[in-house]
Amino acid sequence: xxxxxxNTTEEAPSASEIVAxxxxxxxxxxxxxxxxxxxxxxxxxxxxxxxIYKPDHARMLAELAxxxxxxxxxxxxxxxxxxxxxxxxxxxxxxxxxxxxxxxxEKGLVKYGKPVGVVGAVCPSTNPAATPVNKAMMALxxxxxxxxxxxxxxATTTGKTVDLMRAELAKAGHPEDLVQLLPPPISKEMTQExxxxxxxVVVTGSQNNVKRAMQSGTVAxxxxxxxxxxxIDTTADFDDAAEKICASKIFDNSTSCSSENAVIILDGxxxxxxxxxxxxxxxxxxxSEKESVxxxxxINGKLNRHxxxxxxxITAEAMGLPEAAKSKKFFMVEEASIGGKHSFADEKLSxxxxxxxxxxxxxxxxxxxxxxxxxxxxxxxxxxxxxxxxAREIAADTxxxxxxxxxxxxxxxxxxxxxxxxxxxxxxxxxxxxxTISENLNYRHFINITHLVTTIPEDKPSEExxxxxxxxxxxx
Length: 476
What we know:
Layout: H1 15-32, H2 38-53, H3 55-69, H4 74-93, E1 99-104, E2 109-115, E3 118-122, H5 130-141, E4 145-149, H6 155-171, E5 179-181, H7 188-197, E6 200-203, H8 207-214, E7 219-222, E8 228-232, H9 238-250, E9 260-266, H10 270-279, E10 282-284, H11 287-297, E11 298-299, E12 302-303, H12 312-318, E13 330-335, E14 352-358, H13 361-374, E15 378-384, H14 388-397, E16 400-405, H15 409-412, E17 447-453, H16 463-474
Parallel strand pairs: 3-4, 3-6, 4-5, 6-7, 8-9, 8-15, 9-14, 10-13, 13-14, 15-16
Antiparallel strand pairs: 1-2, 2-17, 11-12
Keywords: Oxidoreductase
Pfam family, one: Aldedh
Organism: Rhodobium gokarnense
């Protein structure tokens, strides 16, 4: 619908006014949304999923994302657009979110799911199509409307993605304004206004955006940076571990926050595991090649944009590696100590994999913890082992939300068909990462719950029941 021409003497609307109009339209859409009806809500969620899962849409958006951002590769983004969406839809269609969502008569409780309101979804350049759809599906599952703030680098892709979502909503008879886009040009001021005015803001990507969301005064969910270290234990199946590490590391050229950034190999099996990684497609850098990688990976304290998320041959060329390295899949640099920011211990967002040699399992745990102190605390750790006691030890002793055992991190950390983590593109790291959630972002974060409470038979133990053991041990 065309808009009336603006008088040229009028001032352009402010960021505050633009966002206020979007929020008002979102609230109006929620009024028209049949969000009291779980069936209709699920149809809306399915419409959003189909808008990106549809094969020609998945490819088109993948191609546009690579052209738009220069990050990742088309085949991986097609998989991401479809796999993440399919898994998220599976999870959402199995959940009740509106009306009565739970009845527990033995506790005298009935729970009702209700919307949180208009959601602001700040999305990253690494996933300019998949993340907006993922968040929109969760938001609409809770009966809400969503306004998406794209990364400036991925704005064209995100804009097209929103157009497809709105068209599919209209086809299914739902208000298009349930999904809106922050208009260009994207700016910090406009994104901040969105954070300030919505009912809930959910941020993935820039840690600066996460901090600003937390300081906005709006209820906020942010997720932390990744920098995943993975241990190869003495009992690991080395070829299986290497194949999974390779598949995960090279997926979308390491754009994922769940991509392995470091591998820690126990001393007794170091060369055996390194040989397996080389068989899987890794290039083992010499000392001089390592220096060249170091000098080219960071330029003036920032990751080199000519290396970030680029194909292996382009990465090898940019790092000054020999011709033979260009046919490999990823590049291993062996490191003896944990540096700080802009060292090989930091997140690299590239096909560079740091390898550490641990004296024993205790040393491997120490190295993993030290890496996470540089970047990624709270996020994730992996281990390849046949000894589940070692996996349990890592889980008990390491300040992370997720510990993946014998899995390709990129394909398991954000939910998998062979694990029970919810499918998502946004992974909380708990207070260790400065986040309000210590789990994968999921539909539960997009609903309020009303508790209907009725009486039950009295459940009041005696003083002896509660204090008796204490009195016996320490006296009354």
